[in-house]
Design a protein that fits this description.
mainly alpha; 18 helices
């Protein structure tokens, strides 16, 4: 006798994955409507699915030009999908439940814990309120600042709409734009560059980190997580800026024709945008191969846990760096900022990186068979999809149906998280009550 499907029997990871799938399906349906596009026939289902996944996964890869192909209705649908995907499905669901006066159950708290990458159940509902308040406040400030800049070039209503859309897209690290060429018209514009980059940097460090910075304002009193996020983020930004400036300085397709100040500003933006932001102020397709390869590394690392960004996360990268340092220096314990790392965190970090690398390599290998493009461009596209970055060398619109399906799967895996998907499939942890005899092997 077949057992009936019971959603209460699903694990938090399974419910979370299913929830994002439902949001994507609803978004696909809305974007398929003729009212959503400038084309009378509407958008074909596969492309609508691609766009809905890209928006919900806050990626930004697009098979059609968002500014030209979609109507205001379609763009607003994309913006709402970005907001849901960026803040987290359970954050939005919990907010709605609180508005109608419904209590949050233990099961729902467990799903919130999974969605927001938190250690404890205590204070999760309070955290949700904080996340929504902070996010909407920062987006409102960003929209206002962008409005003040855009109103100089366009009517008031249009400037306000552009300010809101790009503020939501930037804070949630989505990378969708309605200019048609991202921010290439603002390469030397200090206001647009700093506002947009500040939005996606703040969105990418994680809400728990934002809370600690606001409450403590003292680096010594921060948790180990916050210290690692801030330190690694700063190192990656500075290193990225130096490398981008050096590699692209004389490239006529990117920085070559700019003034020194514009080159510095563009290099800074090139350093921060691979951290899952997806906007670009210089043509990504014009970057040198060495720069693209470096950006692939930055995209793979991505943002930080509990944020609006993707990738394997800065702390994961930091844990692996600490493991390597400990092995090189002959230390038994893995220490960071005078704190010993838990072995489960180390195992999780190694697992996430291996799963992510395997996924990216398999997708790139298949794309290399199905698509007519250079290997580096395909690898860049695959990593951009997994890291929910949205940068592309220009091959997204030319992908085959198989290629688009592969990128859809990769974007979804990048948003939900490779470890969450594995846990959702495995359903439960297996803890053996016995241990086998130990034996050494040769490594390296």
């Amino acid at each position: 006798m077949k057992q009936k499907f019971d959603i209460h029997s699903l694990s938090p990871a399974q419910i979370l994955s299913l929830g994002y799938l439902i949001i994507i399906v609803v978004g696909t349906g809305l974007l398929s409507l003729p009212i959503a596009t400038t084309q009378q026939a509407g958008m074909n289902p596969l492309d609508a699915l691609f766009t809905a996944t890209s928006a919900t996964a806050v990626t930004g890869l697009a098979v059609e030009n968002t500014a030209e192909f979609f109507t205001t209705f379609g763009q607003v649908v994309i913006m709402f999908l970005i907001q849901i995907g960026g803040l987290g499905l359970m954050t939005m669901s919990t907010l709605f439940a609180m508005l109608v006066g419904r209590k949050i159950t233990l099961k729902e708290r467990l799903i919130i814990q999974e969605d927001l990458d938190q250690f404890k159940l205590a204070g999760l509902v309070k955290l949700v309120k904080y996340v929504v308040t902070v996010a909407l406040s920062i987006e409102a400030i960003g929209a206002f600042l962008l409005f003040l800049r855009f109103v100089q070039d366009m009517p008031v209503g249009r400037a306000l709409y552009f300010g809101i859309f790009h503020s939501v897209s930037a804070f949630n690290n989505a990378g969708f734009d309605i200019f048609g060429n991202s921010l290439e018209n603002f390469t030397g514009d200090i206001v647009v560059n700093l506002v947009i980059s500040s939005l996606f940097i703040i969105g990418g460090i994680g809400f728990a980190v934002i809370a600690q910075i606001y409450n403590n304002r003292n680096f010594k009193r921060f948790s180990l997580h916050t210290k690692m996020v801030l330190s690694i983020s700063l190192i990656l930004i500075i290193a990225g800026m130096i490398v981008a400036f050096a590699l692209e300085y004389n490239n006529p397709a990117t920085l070559g024709q700019l003034t020194l100040g514009e080159k510095t500003l563009a290099s800074y933006f090139l350093a921060v945008t691979p951290r899952t932001a997806g906007f670009n102020t210089v043509p990504t397709g014009g970057l040198r191969s060495s720069t693209l390869l470096f950006m692939i590394i930055l995209m793979f690392i991505g943002a930080s846990p509990g944020s609006t960004g993707g990738g394997v996360k800065t702390t994961t990268f930091g844990v692996l760096g600490a493991v390597l340092y400990a092995r090189v220096t002959g230390r038994d314990d893995i220490d960071v900022f005078k704190r010993r790392l838990d072995k489960d965190d180390i195992y999780n970090a190694i697992s996430i990186v291996l799963i992510a690398m395997l996924l990216v390599l398999i997708v790139t290998m298949i794309l290399n068979i199905t698509e007519q493009a250079e290997f580096l461009d395909l690898l860049f596209e695959a990593v951009s999809a997994f890291g929910t970055v949205g940068l592309s060398t220009g091959i997204t619109g030319g992908l085959s149906r198989i290629g688009r399906v592969l990128i859809i799967i990769t974007m979804f895996a990048g948003r939900v998280g490779p470890l969450t998907i594995i846990v959702a499939i495995a359903q439960r942890k297996v803890k053996a009550n016995y241990k086998y005899a130990k034996e050494r092997i040769l490594v390296g």
